[in-house]
Every structure is written in C-alpha cells, then in structure tokens.
Amino acid sequence: MQKVLSATEMREVDRRTTEKYGIPSILLMENAAHAAARVITEKLGGSVAGKSFLILCGKGNNGGDGAALARILWTLGADCFVYLFGKVEETKGEARVNFEILEKYWKEPETGLNNSVLVFEQYEPTEEQISKIIYFAYLRRERDVIVDALFGTGLDKSLQGKIENLALCQHNHQKDLAFAQKPLAVSIDIPSGLNADLSDLIGENIQADLTITFIAPKLANVFPPASNSNGELVVADIGSPQELIDNSPSQTFVAEKQDAQNWLNKTRVKPDSYKKTRGTALIIAGSKSYSGAACLTANACFAAGAGMVSVAVPKSVQEIVAAKVLDEVITRGFSETKNGAFAKSAAKDILELSEKFDVAAIGCGLTSGEESTRKFVREVVEKRQTPLVIDADGLNALAPFDLKGSDKLPLVLTPHIGEFQRLIGKNKITDRIKTAREFAKKHNVILLLKGERSLVAAPDGRVVINPTGNAGISRAGAGDTLTGIITSFLAQTFALEKPNLENTLETVVAALYISSLAGNIAAEKFGQRLMTATDIRECLGEAIKAITN
C-alpha cells in the first residue's frame, strides 16, 4: 500500500530529507525535473527530439520544476516555449536559480547544445494573450505537449482572474477536441486549480492527460472528483528516503499491484493442496424473487479459487439455484417465510452448518422487508462462529448498524453509498473517507465502501483507496459477484492462518483490487456499456495473470 500524504506532510518530508540526510532542496528539484522528463519521454515513444513543448510556469517551486524540466527537455532536442507568469526577480530560492539558468540560456544562444529552440517569456499576460497561447497550442496544433507547472500542492483557494481563464480555456479545448487532435496535457505534481488535500473541486482547474507527482500521491491525485482531472497518474521517486514517508502520520493509502501480488504469493497452490486447504465458503443468499443473486455470488466465489463452496437458500428456490450454479457448487435448502425468504427459524440450522466453513457471506438477494428475515440475519450475525461478509439485504436488515466485530471473528461489510447511509442513519455523506474511517473504528469492522474509487476502512484508522475499476461495474449483479470474490479470497486466507483483522484487511484489499482489474479487462473487451457481472467473473483469470506476470 502506498501512503497518501497531505501538502503539509509532503513539505515535512522535504524538510527532513534536507536536514537529516543532507540532500539539498535544489537537488530534489533537479531530481523531480529529470523524473518528469523520463516519464514524458517514455510517453512520447522514447524521444522528445523535434517535439514542441509549451511550458506554463508559476512563480513558486512548481514553476521552478517546470523551468528545470524545460532546460532538460531542450538539451534532449525538444523545442521549448516557456512562459513565466511573472518576473524572475519575483521568484525565490531554488525556483529562482532554475529561472535564472533558463534566462541565461535564452539570452545567450551560443550556450545551446543543439539546434532546438528555446523561448523564455516572463510577464503577466492579458486574457487576450492567454487565449492566444491556448488557441495556438490546441486549435492550431503548434505544440505537441503542454506542461502545467503553474501551482503545486500549496494552492488552497480557487484560481482567480487570468489564470482561471486559462484553465477554463484549456478545459474547453481539451473537451472539444478528439484525442488524436490535441496536444498531451501534463501537470507537474497536481493539476493547477486543485487543492492537494481535498477530493472536491474548488473551482476551475487544468485537465491533465498525465500527472507526474513526486514521492507520494496526494488526496486530489487519487480520490474523485478531483482525481478525475489527473488523467494517468505517475508517482516518481526523487530520492527522499522511504523511512520519512513511512513515519508520516497519514493513515490514508492507495492499493498497489504489489498488495495483490503479496496475497497471491501467500495463498499459492502447493503440491499437497486439496479442497479444504484451498478454503471453504458458505454463501447465505437468495429468495423467491432474487434467486439469481445467490447464483452470481456462489459462482464468483468458486471461480475466484475457493476449494469448496456451498450455497444456502430458501427451500422453494433450491432446485432453481442448483440448476444455475456451477456443477461444483453444493446447494442446501432452509426454512422460509410464506413469501419465499429466509425465516428466523432457519438461523439455528445455518449457524450449525456455518461452523464447518472457513468463512460465510450473508445478504445477497435475501430481501429485508419481512421481520422474520431481519431477525434471521441478526441472529446469524450475533451468534456467528465464523468470519462473516455482509452485503446488500444483510446490511439493510441490520440498519441502523449497532453491532461490533472482533479480531477472532471479523465482520466485513460491503455497502454501496445508499446502504451505508442507512447503516449510519444519515441521508447525506459529505466526506466518504472520514465517515468510513469513523464507522470502522466505532464498530471494529472492515468496511468496503463501494463507489467511484471504492475504499476499505479498518478499525485502526487506516483507509485504503482502490485505484482499479470503472463505471461499467455499475450494472446489476456486480455487487453479488464482488461479495463472492471477497468471500473466496478470505476462505483461502483463513484456510492457511487464523482469522484476524490484519489479514482480513489485506485480503479484502487484494480481492477488491483484482476484481476491479477484472472489470477493467471486461470493459476493454465488451465496453463499459455492455459488460456484465458474469464478464467480470470470467475475466478473473486474466486479471490474476496480469498481476503475476
């Protein structure tokens, strides 16, 4: 997991890098510029020679990064047109050093190392001049790349005046032109106009195709809606020791490919494996009206690698479910209400059965309109003797939520935003990360809050943002499929080691990352409009292969 730092935490890392390790700030700026140049060069196919860059710089350190980047790109054969919105005399510290170097190269062309063009303008442009700069860059296609180095992580208020107009102009052209017709928009550290510490927009901002940030991501880099302005995000190392990042007080993280790799390595299939060492799972799901939910959950659970899966359903739908699940899945029928949902009387038998499994899941397709079914769910949760995943109507039956999980018998809750609102008894949630963190702490549970950039919260305050996935998973059945995958992964973990909150968190993070990656693969194959929950399940193998290769 990669830690997400605030602007203040990032400045502290920079300060400690210089004070404790003796790495001067000017070298960190130079490292940042070289890292950005490498990323851009790779993005352009391995060379910037002959490419034309428009580099827009502010007067702060972000502008200094842009000035250093311009110098490096120019020495590599790129034509660089640099605009400092201000005067060199108004800049300070390391930024001024780099602007003065750039000014010297521009005024003394004999210092040039090649035939590439360098133009360095410094002034406070009028709105007309700004419009002209953007017009020629976009509509006349005179520049291959536009680099935004106007503001970095220090911005805490919306853009004003001419700079706001620049962002609005760029946004409009970015939106109106086809990808092949527009220059590549690159933001250094963060798209200008975003507050690094906020996921919400604070006004107009640059829309980047690629954002290159340094040392660690900031919240606006990774959490929507602000993250939607970043385009592709690359986090570049510039030499700050990992110890300083690890010691930062931040409890917000982004899941990484390595998290999924670690889980896959830990649960790898061994030569002496058999079905029980691969993990056993019980799916408690379905009703007369929603038998498909039980099938989707059970099938996903088995497809995701569990050694043995049983699905418990109301008696009246047992034959229907048995006919639709994979041949390897065992179906069992239990007492039901007159409307074909689980009855409270089924709880005792379900609890006895669940003790034979490594993990159980409850909720998909249950319905929660009847008191008998709600009492059934509560009894199963309160008297459980195995770790439990709760989703959908299992959550609705327990709302508002007043239970607590434990380290020995972890509870994993997987609500979407509407279900979560019912759990906490609120109609609106303004800060998903904060609210999820508080809920997980209060109830001692692992909470997976689904949505754009789903997140996982733990009782110790950690929140992990998942970077994979797309809007195509918003169709019916995707939640049931995710529940099945999570349950399967937990079964495989708990077959090898005793359940606790730490290995539960690690497993849920890996399951969410891999299942959402499968969703990305499905979207590439079928498109976000047409992809289905079954497509996600069937792309799991490709997702795992992509991670392990």
Topology-level CATH name of the largest domain: UDP-N-acetylmuramoyl-L-alanine:D-glutamate ligase
**Into which percent range does the helicity of residues fall?**
40-55%
Describe the biggest sheet?
11 strands, mixed
| Neighbour order of strands in the largest sheet | 1-9-18-17-16-15-14-13-10-11-12
Shape: elongated
CATH level-1 class of the largest domain: Alpha Beta
Radius of gyration: 27 Å
Indicate the CATH architecture of the largest domain: 3-Layer(aba) Sandwich
**Count of separate DSSP helical elements:** 20
Number of strands: 18
Mean pLDDT: 94
Counting helices, strands and paired strands, the structural category is alpha/beta
Question: Are there runs of 5+ residues with pLDDT below 50, and where?
Answer: none
User: What is the end-to-end distance?
Assistant: 19 Å
Number of domains: 2
Helix-strand layout with pairing:
Layout: E1 2-3, H1 7-21, H2 25-43, E2 52-57, H3 61-75, E3 79-85, H4 93-107, E4 118-123, H5 127-138, E5 145-149, H6 161-176, E6 184-188, E7 210-214, H7 219-222, E8 232-236, H8 242-246, E9 252-254, H9 257-266, E10 280-284, H10 291-303, E11 308-314, H11 318-324, E12 330-334, H12 347-354, E13 359-362, H13 371-382, E14 388-390, H14 392-398, E15 411-413, H15 417-424, H16 432-443, E16 446-449, E17 455-457, E18 463-465, H17 478-494, H18 501-526, H19 533-538, H20 540-548
